[in-house]
């Protein structure tokens, strides 16, 4: 092991590994430099847990002469029998090293040893990567060197684990902040906040298609069901909309009880109103079908659900609004207010999807004129449109 080269690698990592701008590139360069310094590495893995509602963690695998493999695992891995008997499970739970020399019969307790033997691996060590707050991630190191790792080589791996943990902690914190912002405020809003748009009053205007929906009969439903059941129903109901909205270029800004506010931005330079409205309508039809198919067993009865959706096109103010140090990144403006009024009209008319005259005039979706209605807070009445393929039903209470 070349001690001078090892120190250079450690200093490079402490300095932020600037020659490798992405985590996979950093891992590739680090492992290649370690091999040149005399560390006989074969398959190396780094396993990083994440703060994400769907993803338990990310993994990175390096082998000589190959691209770094990356992937994710969901939270179900915690219940898998394979993970329970993995060395990594011990590292995560106890924060200790786990070694499996393949010539040691005791290593047979780890099923992964069989796979490693098939690759010609002679030694395996899982090393904790400990953050400054004590949070533990893990790394695995293998070699095909006869006799396994030497004590000097193991010490080199342990010395690398410390700066590697710091590098991963910094990258993970930035990534976690981005993921949390995406999860709780939406992708575009998250990008703006990460970009420094954090002060109250920081706002921009944009043209967008506005989506405002509401679950019919929710008040009566929540009055007669346990709170836990209501939350479960809401999650199923929102699932019917969120994926359709995101798949068609929209961004969910806010959940308001059983209500949902989303926007589909219009590019001011492309002038793509027709394409945007077409995607919005596709998302609306997909959401309508999903909610119509949704049912929930309630004792001997089966609850079925309906929702109302108002679509409008207009200019919104998009930015930070709030009081003191508690802010919300959302959109406001007359266009949003009009969408909210239209959603109430949809309920009175027994319609699922309604649109303003401006949206229906741009979207070629087969609209029927439902009449002109006075709008509270607006001086002018608004003509409202409904889909041809939708018959009105009795409004839910």
What does this protein structure show overall?
The protein has 397 residues and is of the alpha+beta class. It has two domains: 3-185, GAF domain (Beta-Lactamase, 2-Layer Sandwich), CATH 3.30.450.40; 187-387, 2-Layer Sandwich (Alpha-Beta Plaits), CATH 3.30.70. The chain is built from twelve helices and 16 strands. A hairpin with a 5-residue loop joins β1 and β2. α6 packs across α7 (187-194) and α9 (227-247) runs antiparallel to α10 (273-293). The longest helix is centred in the middle third of the chain and has 35 residues, at 151-185. It is elongated, with a radius of gyration of 28 Å. The mean pLDDT is 87. Keywords: Lyase. One of its GO terms (molecular function) is adenylate cyclase activity.
Provide keyphrases for this structure.
elongated, Beta-Lactamase, alpha+beta, 12 helices, Alpha-Beta Plaits, six-stranded antiparallel beta sheet, eight-stranded mixed beta sheet
Task: Report a brief summary of the structure.
This protein is of the alpha+beta class and 397 residues long. It contains twelve helices and 16 strands. The strands form three sheets. Strands 7, 8, 9, 12, 13, 14, 15 and 16 form an eight-stranded mixed sheet that branches. A six-stranded antiparallel sheet has the order 3-2-1-6-5-4, with helices on both faces.
| CATH secondary-structure class of the largest domain | Alpha Beta
Number of domains: 2
N/C terminus separation: 76 Å
Percent of residues in beta strands: 25-35%
Give me the Rg, rounded.
Answer: 28 Å
Largest sheet: 8 strands, mixed
Helix and strand composition category: alpha+beta
List segments where confidence is low: pLDDT < 50 over at least 5 consecutive residues: none
Query: Which overall shape is indicated by the principal axes computed on the Cα atoms?
Result: elongated
Q: Any idea what the CATH superfamily of the largest domain is called?
A: Nucleotide cyclase, GGDEF domain
Fraction of helical residues: 40-55%
Number of helices: 12
H/E element sequence: HHEEEHHEHEEHHEHHEEHEEEEHEHEE
CATH architecture label of the largest domain: 2-Layer Sandwich
Q: Determine the mean pLDDT.
A: 87
The count of strands amounts to: 16
Kindly report the CATH topology of the largest domain: Alpha-Beta Plaits
